Amino acid sequence: MLKFVAFLLAGVASVANLSAQMLIVDRGPTSTSNQSLGLTAKTDAFLADDFVVGVAKEDWVIEHIRLWAVPDPKANGAQGAGDLFKKISFFGGIAPDIPVAGPNAPVECDCHNLPALKTAAIEPGGNSTDSPDVAISSNKQEGSDLWQVDFKEMKWSVPGGTSIQFGILAEPFAGFTWYNLGSPTDSSHLRVFSNVGKVQGPYQGDAAGSTMNIQVWGHLLARVSIHTSGQKYHVILRSQSYLDATQVDPASLHFGPGKASPENVHVEDVNHNGKGDLVMYFRAADSGIAAKSINACLTGKRLDGAPFEGCDLLSH
């Protein structure tokens, strides 16, 4: 059995900067995560899985994704990812339909392909990459044969209640295979995609009844309006179907890079649509907003703890 505990604890420090985000998908490794999921016969394709965040009519922004991989057992000794692979790419998008087979099957549109959202070259001899947004780490000291792969600063907007497809394409040196860490499941959604993100069909490998281990952090997308009022900012959080502005935690509200707290908060039906909006005033001196800033953001949490963020352009 792989030694997960020390490896997972070692990653706690790396999520400290995610305090403003919520862990919205948690399929992290457990004692049952013993599946190596990869395409041994293809180097120009990748294996993908899916997840769902929130519920219908919600808008979520994914900021950080964490996956795990098992080094190819054909590699001799403890080697870094850069000894086996040249480049790594994260693909993601709305889960497409499996193509219909047969002579009368419709021609697939490339508009249904998954795009590459993050790509990085892996430096030889270790796990370093050429991108600050892609980090690979390992825990060889504790005997765990795992790589932890973090994709940061995603800023990926996805609809709630919808299947979101994801996968890693790793460009290998000759003879090596990228294996995602997975767990057995009763409802596997694994699919095979080409190197340009086109779905090829369901995965038919030995571990087809598996799901990839993944963790996803993100926040709800809020609608705000920002205006200047003397030495203060006048900020309006507008109610939406999934974010009732009157049902947020007032103590959680912060504005600008200075994380200013509101001086004054009251409820008002600004749009005259029968829904209460939250009207706030913040001291400009507390906001930390520079004189030539283009936009600013309000952050907070719903009463159920789900974080949100809304941004608007600034008028000068």
| Total E-strand runs | 22
Give the total of domains. Answer: 2
Give the helix proportion (percent range): under 10%
Q: If helices are DSSP runs of H or I spanning 4 or more residues, what is the number of helices? A: 3
Q: Biggest sheet, in brief?
A: 12 strands, mixed
Mean pLDDT: 88
Shape: elongated
Radius of gyration: 22 Å
Distance between the termini: 60 Å
Q: Helix and strand string, N-terminal first?
A: HEEEEHEEEEEEEEEEEEEEEEHEE
Strand residue percentage: 35-45%
Structural class: mainly beta
The low-confidence parts are 1-17
Description:
There is one protein chain. The protein is mainly beta and 316 residues long. The protein has two domains: 5-219, no CATH class; 222-313, Immunoglobulin-like. The chain has three helices and 22 strands. The strands form three sheets. Strands 1, 2, 4, 7, 8, 9, 11, 14, 15, 18, 21 and 22 form a twelve-stranded mixed β-sheet that branches. The protein is elongated, with a radius of gyration of 22 Å. 36% of the residues are buried.
Topology:
Layout: H1 5-10, E1 22-27, E2 35-37, E3 45-51, E4 59-70, H2 81-84, E5 85-94, E6 116-121, E7 134-139, E8 144-151, E9 156-159, E10 164-172, E11 179-184, E12 191-194, E13 199-202, E14 210-212, E15 214-221, E16 223-229, E17 232-238, E18 254-255, E19 264-268, E20 277-283, H3 284-287, E21 295-301, E22 307-313
Parallel strand pairs: 15-22
Antiparallel strand pairs: 1-15, 2-11, 3-10, 3-12, 4-8, 4-9, 4-11, 4-15, 5-6, 5-10, 7-8, 11-14, 12-13, 16-17, 17-20, 18-21, 19-20, 21-22
